[in-house]
């Protein structure tokens, strides 16, 4: 099944970004790659990346290590109706969420990541969903014009939401900025909202 193999972040300083991500998240393997770019790390890139973990202790651990490595706090980790989590912005501008559906710890933090989810902001969820279905992605959840999520079969799960809602969910202003991300997986193309994809090697 077609899938996302990795996310390639466009960063102004690859060495600095590599140091940040190593300190913040440890080894994400091939799921995260870095590429030099002249685009400034300003404005909202239109997406967020979530690390889904099993319990609050793991969300706390990743949040704290990201902040210690130089991330900016957007939303402190806290309980909510849906679970537990927080949001930070990396020095390169990428927005990262740390999310646990559980509100209670079952033990000490393990560092295990259950899933990585790329939530991209789009103009028309239904049209974008059909665009990706035409490229072989399988829909796992769909709520009309509001939200769509595709079945994971690789390193990263893809989800769609209107751009303004992605910014609201992340807690950042919806200020226009370059996407600064390339998605590696199902082929080489640019989607209707300007996100660039390239064929996984």
Domain count:
1
Structural class by helix and strand composition: alpha/beta
Tell me the fraction of residues in β-strands, as a range.
35-45%
- Gyration radius, rounded: 16 Å
Q: Mind telling me the CATH class?
A: Alpha Beta
- In CATH, the architecture is Roll
Estimate the helix proportion, in percent: 10-25%
**C-alpha termini separation:** 16 Å
**CATH homologous superfamily (4th level) name:** 2,3-Dihydroxybiphenyl 1,2-Dioxygenase, domain 1
Quick structural summary:
The chain is built from four helices and 13 strands. With 201 residues, the protein is of the alpha/beta class. It is globular.
Description:
The protein is an alpha/beta fold and 201 residues long. It has a single domain (6-199), classed as Roll (2,3-Dihydroxybiphenyl 1,2-Dioxygenase, domain 1), CATH 3.10.180. The protein has helices at 14-25, 56-69, 125-133, 163-170, and strands spanning 6-11, 32-36, 47-53, 72-79, 84-89, 95-100, 115-122, 139-143, 147-150, 157-162, 181-185, 189-190, 196-199. Strands 4-5-6-3-7-10-9-8 form an eight-stranded mixed sheet. Strands 2-1-11-13-12 form a five-stranded mixed sheet, covered by helices on one side. A hairpin with a 5-residue loop joins β5 (84-89) and β6 (95-100). The protein is globular and about 45 Å long.
